[in-house]
Every structure is written in structure tokens, then in C-alpha cells.
Design brief:
- The structure is a single chain.
- By secondary structure, this protein is α/β, with parallel strands linked by helices.
- The protein folds into 2 domains: about 180 residues, Rossmann fold, CATH 3.40.50.450; about 110 residues, Phosphofructokinase domain (Rossmann fold), CATH 3.40.50.460.
- The protein has 11 helices and 11 strands.
- Bound molecules: adenosine-5'-triphosphate (ATP).
- Adenosine-5'-triphosphate binds next to α4.
- The site of adenosine-5'-triphosphate (ATP) has 18 residues, from α4.
């Protein structure tokens, strides 16, 4: 292996730059040449390749987003698109790829291996933490902290006025952010996918709580399950309370990565280079119980039961603490 390419794909996540920096410098340390591929699979299809050296990743460790840019590529979903991507790999003599992204990106990398035998190693970088094979993905905890910071600020108003706030956080199919900010932010309830929830019961709780003297509520809604405006409307109608919906949106994806994500990204960037050098071809690196692990792409895109059980436990605790 002489030359590798690095790309970031899917949604950006804080800490992707730290992963790029680590992979570039670890590769150089191991005697490899490194190319950067701009705009994820779009850049791979359209031959958008840049030279990278140790200096091209200076001063990016603390920056959110990704210097390589990222994209969602419709064309890469087609075999024709992947064929073009393969041509770019050949043209630039890339012996392997490091793909920093979420499970969609890993599905794409797996197809590229199956069809054209392009070796790649995935680095889990997504705020959703929805990848099997790593306890945490790069950016997820920074996103939790960003959302929490906003919720703490909203709480100042909540505690000053008689009000219910319904706060929508990111997580299309994953409740990771919703459940963590629910617990850490002292929310009264969390609506998230994969659980049965009954909004009538929630409204009964609110009415009963009010009779006991409770004046304010914070309810977290995961974007995958409902939108804050609809939920707020229903609660307002059923409880006659003043209800305010808040959608935190894309602020959750930005910002400087916290130490946890910088360290995770630095470790995974290193592990990805080592995995390529050790002959892995179609797999993802991750950290499980603080140890480096390699998981085939096919398994990485399945749902992790350990994470589901932990989510359930944390949610139950949130409800106990909300009395
Ligand atoms: P995030 O979790 O932040 O959304 P992701 O990697 O899961 O990240 P996706 O948009 O799902 O984001 O996937 C990124 C890109 O990977 C897609 O735009 C597409 O180009 C490619 N991709 C996803 N699924 C497949 C697939 N089944 N076959 C080929 N390519 C795919």
C-alpha cells in the first residue's frame, strides 16, 4: 500500500476534522502518500482530488465541519456512479480509501468493495451514534452538549414563567441526542422512536402535576418521531397550558468538538490507517468498551441491541427523576 485517499460523507459532524488530521498524519508517519477527496462520493465521482501533507491539516483540530466538505450523492447510489468513482480511484492510483461518515456512507463503501474491489476502512463520524461496532461515533457527544447548552438557557425562561416548552432535537431514526439531553437537561419527558408513547397520558400527567403545584415542563422530541409544532399544538389543546415549540435544528451539528470527540477522532483516524496497512478491506474501525475494534461494513449497518437497552434505561431514569 503506497497511496490512500480520505473523504468525508453524509452529514457533517464535529470532530471530522480531527479524524482527517489524525488519518493524514498517521498515514504519513507510516510512509504513505495521502490524497484528499472533496465533497464525499460526489468528489470521488468527479475526480476532485487534492494533495495532502502534514501541514494541510494544521489548525483544524478544534474546528467543526470538515475541510474536505461533505455531500449526499444520488449518483453514487447507482452502479454507473460507482463505476465513475472507481475510475477516479484508478486514475489517482489510490490503493485504499478512508471513509469518514455514517452507516449510509459505509453501505456505499461496501458496494464499492463488492463491485470494484476498492479497499476501504470506515471511520464512524455522525451525530446520530447509530453505527454498530462503536460505542460512540465522532460528533455525537458534542451535539448533545450543544443541544444541552440551548436547553439550559431555555430553562431559565421555563422556571420564570408558567410554561411548557416542547424542544425538538436532531436524530432521524436514533434517539441518542434526545435521550441524553432529556436526562442531562432534567426534562420531564422525551418522545423518541422505537417506544410507544401516549400523548394523552402525558397530558394527564401535566394536568395532575399542575394540580400539585408544578408550573413548568420541558419535553424533548426527537425529530424522527414528531415535530415540535404538532406536539405543542396537541398539548395546548388538551391542557389549556401555554406551550412553546422550539426547534434546535442545525446548530446541533456545528461548533468546536469537545475533548471526548477529538480524542475519539484521533484514535479512530490512527486505527483506520493501521487497519488498511494490516490488510482489512471492507470494514469499519470503532471503540467498544475503550478498546479498538474492527467490524465488517455489513454488520456495522445493523442496529445495536446494547445501545437500545442503554437508551431504555436512561429514559426510565429520566422519568423517575422528573417527579
Ligand atoms: P449521517 O448519519 O450523518 O446521515 P450517512 O453516512 O448515514 O451520515 P447518508 O446520506 O445516509 O449519510 O449516506 C451518505 C452517502 O452514502 C449517500 O449520499 C450515498 O451517496 C451513499 N450511500 C448511502 N447508502 C448507499 C447505498 N445503499 N448504496 C450506495 N451508496 C450509498
Amino acid at each position: 500500500m503506497k497511496r490512500i485517499g480520505i473523504l468525508t460523507s453524509g452529514g457533517d459532524a464535529p470532530g471530522m476534522n480531527a479524524a482527517i488530521r489524525s488519518a493524514v498524519r498517521c498515514a504519513i508517519h507510516s510512509g504513505l502518500e495521502v490524497k484528499g477527496i472533496m465533497r464525499g462520493y460526489e468528489g470521488l465521482i468527479h475526480n476532485e482530488i487534492i494533495d495532502m501533507n502534514a501541514r494541510s491539516v494544521s489548525n483544524i483540530l478544534s474546528r467543526g465541519g470538515t475541510i474536505l466538505k461533505t455531500a449526499r450523492s444520488e449518483e453514487f447510489m447507482t452502479e454507473g456512479g460507482r463505476k465513475k468513482a472507481f475510475e477516479t480511484v484508478k486514475k489517482n492510483s489510490l490503493d485504499g480509501l478512508i471513509v469518514i461518515g455514517g452507516n449510509g456512507s459505509f453501505r456505499g463503501a461496501h458496494e464499492l468493495w463488492k463491485e470494484f474491489k476498492v479497499p476501504s476502512i470506515g471511520v464512524p463520524g455522525t451525530i446520530d451514534n447509530d453505527v454498530f461496532g462503536s460505542d460512540y461515533t465522532i460528533g455525537a457527544y458534542t451535539a448533545v452538549n450543544t443541544a444541552l447548552d440551548a436547553i439550559d438557557k431555555i430553562r431559565d425562561t421555563v422556571t420564570s414563567m408558567e410554561r411548557i416548552y416542547v424542544i425538538e432535537v436532531m436524530g432521524r431514526e436514533e434517539p441518542f441526542i434526545a435521550i441524553r439531553v432529556g436526562l442531562a437537561g432534567g426534562a420531564e419527558d422525551v418522545l423518541f422512536p422505537y417506544t410507544e408513547y401516549n400523548i394523552d397520558d402525558m397530558c394527564d400527567d401535566i394536568t395532575a402535576g399542575r394540580k400539585k403545584g408544578k408550573i413548568s415542563w420541558i419535553i424533548i422530541v426527537s425529530e424522527g418521531v414528531a415535530n415540535a409544532y404538532d406536539v405543542a399544538e396537541i398539548i395546548k389543546e388538551k391542557t389549556q397550558f401555554s406551550v412553546r415549540p422550539v426547534v434546535l435544528g442545525h446548530i446541533q451539528r456545528g461548533g468546536s468538538p469537545e475533548a471526548f470527540d477529538r480524542i475519539l477522532a484521533s484514535r479512530l483516524g490512527h486505527d483506520a490507517v493501521q487497519a488498511l496497512l494490516n490488510g482489512y478491506r471492507d470494514a469499519m474501525v470503532g471503540i467498544i468498551r475503550d478498546e479498538s475494534k474492527i467490524t465488517p461494513y455489513e454488520k456495522a449497518t445493523t442496529r445495536d441491541k446494547r445501545k437500545v437497552l442503554l437508551d431504555e434505561k436512561l429514559y426510565k431514569l429520566t422519568r423517575i427523576l422528573a417527579i
